[in-house]
């Protein structure tokens, strides 16, 4: 029969049961298993962490400097490190707000049919400087913008059969306004499309028309 350990006896470091009791007690106290200092390794270098965040953010998609700065701030990267790395990324061309703005305008204008005003609003929300936005939006050909408006109206009209001209005009002009088109261009394009469709020209929606 094994001798009974007294209350004053202390288990030795080789006592596996005792070690298990300690680990269980720590886990119960903290709510999670104790961290192994060997497996945890040294603390990560903040600059390396920030660099990895930037590269991950830029993989497959361009972003503005402001977007990247916001992401670094969300990940608690010190501002000094963030600015230093963003400056370095700009020097090598990985961060370029001018190129980003031009790419955004080209893609969204041709793909979504957005007008310059809507594109400028989107770029401002991404933190791009107004001077850069102005230059990028100025590259839009007015004929391309008008053609995009016509395509949007033609597509929308396919789902508007049976509406009288006033209602159709109001809805089509409103749709173009949300895409950033001026009132003058919106009414001109809508009137042209409705005339071509055979809608009664005497039934125009007059409010706000040029």
Describe this structure in words.
- The protein starts with 15 loop residues before the first helix and ends in a 13-residue tail after the last helix.
- With 210 residues, it is mainly alpha-helical.
- The chain has 3 domains: 50 residues, Arc Repressor Mutant, subunit A; 45 residues, Orthogonal Bundle (Arc Repressor Mutant, subunit A), CATH 1.10.10; 69 residues.
- The N terminus and C terminus are likely disordered.
- The chain is built from 11 helices and no strands.
- Tally the beta strands: 0
Helix content: 55-70%
- Averaged pLDDT: 82
Overall SS class: mainly alpha
**Largest sheet data:** none
N-to-C order of helices and strands: HHHHHHHHHHH
> What gyration radius follows from the Cα positions, in whole Å?
32 Å
The tally of helices reads: 11
Number of domains: 3
Low-confidence stretches: 1-8, 10-30, 204-210
Strand residues, percent: under 5%
| General shape | elongated
Terminal Cα separation, in Å?
A: 106 Å
Domain RecX first three-helical: 50-88
Domain RecX third three-helical: 143-190
Domain RecX second three-helical: 96-136
InterPro entries: RecX_HTH_1st, RecX_HTH_2nd, RecX_HTH_3rd, Regulatory_RecX, WH-like_DNA-bd_sf
